[in-house]
Amino acid sequence: DTEVTQTPKHLVMGMTNKKSLKCEQHMGHRAMYWYKQKAKKPPELMFVYSYEKLSINESVPSRFSPECPNSSLLNLHLHALQPEDSALYLCASSQLQREGLADTQYFGPGTRLTVL
Amino acid sequence: GQNIDQPTEMTATEGAIVQINCTYQTSGFNGLFWYQQHAGEAPTFLSYNVLDGLEEKGRFSSFLSRSKGYSYLLLKELQMKDSASYLCAVSNSGNTPLVFGKGTRLSVIA
Question: Is the predicted pLDDT of residue B94 greater than 80, yes or no?
């Protein structure tokens, strides 16, 4: 089973709203990721959690706030977003190999976010 | 620095063979991945190469030459459903777990 689930599939929000995106995996993976993807562009890494601790923050604005409640769940809290934040938000997970070995990332179906 | 290049768009005919090339320059190298992404959907894992040579998986094969910083994805017996973006991604020893190329949009025509 290589399934990563994300909810909601679509989200429309105003610039003053607060919303959350959710991601779940039950593969026992110890690394989880948030990516942002604009149309016709590759995924752009936002955050990485390793063993439930934030290990990478790619200089993401504070209006995006990640949270990892446990090893299976990853949330992305959204507040005061801008229209240019409209994009497909992808969650991924990986096993977390030891140093020097590559990790295969498995992606969820994404949340299509529109900010009005 | 890191740099990954792949063609922006390709068109091929149903039933044919197409080769999508990827060149990369990266400090440290732990492997190269190919992902397929249909419009509006998530990337799905296709292949992983860490040693030189060809890995075959059904209609899809992936090749790697580490000395040349070069990989290709070969798709045989093309089907209309193969129309998608194909993303080359490199895993290195740097801070970012995967560095993606810009993707190649493949259109399969009848």
Answer: no
pLDDT of residue B1: 60
Q: In what order do the strands lie in the sheet with B18-25?
A: B3-5, B18-25, B70-75, B60-65, B53-57
Helical segments of chain B, H only: none
Mean pLDDT of A91-103: 82
Q: Which of B36, B68, B74 is nearest to B55 (CA)?
A: B74
pLDDT band for position A20 (50/70/90)?
Answer: very high
CA distances from A61 to A35, A47, A57, B68 (A): 14, 11, 10, 38
Q: Report, in angstroms and rounded to the nearest whole number, the Rg of chain A calculated over CA atoms.
A: 14
Burial status of residue B28 (CB atoms within 10 A of its CB: 0-12, 13-18, 19 or more): exposed
More confident residue, B110 or A103: B110
Residues 31-70 of A with CB under 8 A from B: 31, 33, 40-43, 45, 48, 56, 58
Pick the residue from chain A with its C-alpha nearest to B89: A42
pLDDT at A108: 96
Chain A residues with beta carbon closer than 8 angstroms to that of B45: 2, 104-106
CA–CA gap between residue B96 and residue B83 (Å, rounded): 29
Going from the C-alpha of A47 to that of each of A35, A61, B69, the distances in angstroms are 7, 11, 27
CA pseudo-torsion sign A55, B101, A3, B47: negative
